[in-house]
Write a structure and sequence with these properties.
The protein is mainly beta. The protein has helices at 4-10, 12-15, and strands at residues 18-22, 28-29, 44-48, 52-61, 74-81, 86-92, 104-115, 120-129.
């Protein structure tokens, strides 16, 4: 059985924004990879991603999976972090009219969903507009 503490340790990209930086060419991967697609190196060092960036693309999802139906519509964005790494994250606490390419955001650690009948809480990062 996967305990919450083991899940935390084995999912650093979800809980601590840990990425892998190629020791040869310096390219950053999120989530981490085993082989660099630029130089084919297999050695990486851990690096923590910045928690600020800007929206480079977004989409509104009006019809969601049943476990997210009470949150619809949901804004999903591609966020370019301050170091150039791009991640996908839900953009929350804003209206659709406030969303635009180039808008600065900050990543916050939030509850993502309650999983299964037992109601296990799943956490991750969501983007909020910097105001």
């Amino acid at each position: 059985m996967l305990t919450p503490s083991k899940y935390w340790r084995e999912s650093p990209q979800r809980y601590r924004l840990e990425a892998a930086k190629c020791t040869k060419c310096g390219k950053v991967f999120f989530p981490p990879r085993l082989v660099c697609d630029s130089c084919k190196n297999g050695e990486f060092e851990k690096t923590t991603l910045p928690d600020e960036g800007k929206i480079v693309s977004y989409s509104m999802i009006h019809v969601t999976a049943s476990n997210f139906s009470d949150e619809a519509p949901i804004a999903l964005g591609i966020i370019e972090l301050d170091n150039g790494t791009k991640i996908t994250a839900q953009v929350t606490d804003c209206t659709e009219d406030e969303l635009a390419v180039g808008v600065p955001v900050k990543l916050e650690f939030r509850k993502v969903q309650e999983a299964g009948e037992s109601g296990v809480l799943c956490y991750g990062y969501k983007a909020v507009l910097k105001r």
